[in-house]
């Protein structure tokens, strides 16, 4: 299926609808469309550079107020009634049919979360039903094992002193198997979502540019970037891991008549972890925030722009 394309006229109409809500007017009627946001930390926000958590009490999923679903909710809340059940560290199975035990910000020995452990949350698909008009879902990185790959690449790169491609040498032969798993589980997830909401349009959201085309921008050993991952392995991560991950998601969306793909990659091309105007944080955000390669508020604003257009296109 073709990628979702913008409908800017509708966007302007929706903004106009919001603008006419004047003080003292009659209470607004219910939103026209029911929207459910599903996904992992790239949807939920999670890091402090993507805003503050707003769930009270906390459920450990770490949804933040500057993540793209919440940004869109402020932009288009008069048109879409948002149910946001995205959750940090979610896998495709956690969206489809597995209860998830959220980790919050508990990443010992790097950080301890005083509220950990958290009760399990239901499978995210449970929030989808016959009344749902549109679903957005951004997931796949945790099924691929991207965090574990980053950790291993750091370890091996630290041992090599920025020489060669030790991570590619160790893990490269298994990447296609990981990608095949993503594709298979994504296909099943989309089928389950369609079955639960037959009339809903499903918008799959890809991942932004994380590693620049010029890996020499990424200073070796710089924790605000990729730490001790070698520049050779960064090229491998971009071309053989992250770009194929987006392609697997796009391909899966193309198998479902009710699904479309929102591509964040081109618009974020010059805003990687290692670019001066970065929309994705590195391993840490100064002075002392653990970010572990997640979008900041600017990255979520960019995602919001594209997902907003796709939402309006889906219901127009």
Fold and architecture overview:
- The protein is of the alpha/beta class and 316 residues long.
- The chain has a domain at 31-144 and 180-211 and 244-279 and 293-315: SGNH hydrolase (Rossmann fold, 3-Layer(aba) Sandwich), CATH 3.40.50.
- It is 38% helix and 9% strand.
- The chain has ten helices and seven strands.
- The strands form two sheets. A five-stranded parallel β-sheet has the order 2-1-3-4-5, sandwiched between helices. The chain has a two-stranded antiparallel sheet with strand order 6-7.
- Helix 3 (68-76) packs across helix 10.
- The longest helix has 23 residues, at 231-253.
- It is globular.
- 48% of the residues are buried.
- The model is unreliable at 1-28 (pLDDT under 50).
Helix content range: 25-40%
- Spans where pLDDT lies below 50 across 5 or more residues: 1-28
Oligomer: single chain
The biggest beta sheet reads: 5 strands, parallel
Q: Report mean pLDDT, rounded to a whole number.
A: 92
Q: Which word captures the global form?
A: globular
CATH superfamily of the domain at 31-144 and 180-211 and 244-279 and 293-315: SGNH hydrolase
> Remind me, CATH topology of the domain at 31-144 and 180-211 and 244-279 and 293-315?
Rossmann fold
**Gross CATH architecture of the domain at 31-144 and 180-211 and 244-279 and 293-315:** 3-Layer(aba) Sandwich
Tally of individual helices: 10
Beta-sheet strand percentage? 5-15%
Note the gap between the termini. Answer: 18 Å
List SSEs in N-to-C order. HEHHEHEHHHHEHEEEH
| The top level CATH class name of the domain at 31-144 and 180-211 and 244-279 and 293-315 | Alpha Beta
Question: Which radius of gyration do the C-alpha atoms yield?
Answer: 19 Å
Tell how many strands the DSSP assignment holds.
7
Strand ordering within the main sheet = 2-1-3-4-5
Structural class: alpha/beta
């Amino acid at each position: 299926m073709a990628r979702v394309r913008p409908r800017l006229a509708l966007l302007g109409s929706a903004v106009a609808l919001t603008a006419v809500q004047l003080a003292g007017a009659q209470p607004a009627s219910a939103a026209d469309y029911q929207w459910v946001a599903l996904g992992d930390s790239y949807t939920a926000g999670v890091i402090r550079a993507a805003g503050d958590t707003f769930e009270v009490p906390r459920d450990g999923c770490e949804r933040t107020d500057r993540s793209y679903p919440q940004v869109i909710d402020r932009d288009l809340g008069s048109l879409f009634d948002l149910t946001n059940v995205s959750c940090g560290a979610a896998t495709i199975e956690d969206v489809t049919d597995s209860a998830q035990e959220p980790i919050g910000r508990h990443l010992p020995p790097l950080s301890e979360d005083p509220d950990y452990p958290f009760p399990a949350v239901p499978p995210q698909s449970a929030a989808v039903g016959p009344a749902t008009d549109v679903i957005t879902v951004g997931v796949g990185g945790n099924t691929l094992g991207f965090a574990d790959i980053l950790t291993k690449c750091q370890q091996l790169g630290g041992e090599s002193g920025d020489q060669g491609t030790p991570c590619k040498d160790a893990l490269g032969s298994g990447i296609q198997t990981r990608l095949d798993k993503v594709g298979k589980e994504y296909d099943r997830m989309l089928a389950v979502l369609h079955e639960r909401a037959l009339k809903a349009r499903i918008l799959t959201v890809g991942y932004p540019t994380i590693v620049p085309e010029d890996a020499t921008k990424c200073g070796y050993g710089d924790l605000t970037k990729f730490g001790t991952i070698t520049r050779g392995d960064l090229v491998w991560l971009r071309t053989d891991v992250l770009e194929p991950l987006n392609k697997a998601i796009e391909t899966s969306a193309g198998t479902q008549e009710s699904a479309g793909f929102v591509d964040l990659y081109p618009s974020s091309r010059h805003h990687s972890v290692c670019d001066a105007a970065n929309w994705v944080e590195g391993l840490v955000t100064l002075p002392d925030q653990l970010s572990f390669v997640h979008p900041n508020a600017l990255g979520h604003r960019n995602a919001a722009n594209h997902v907003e257009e796709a939402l309006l296109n889906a219901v127009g």
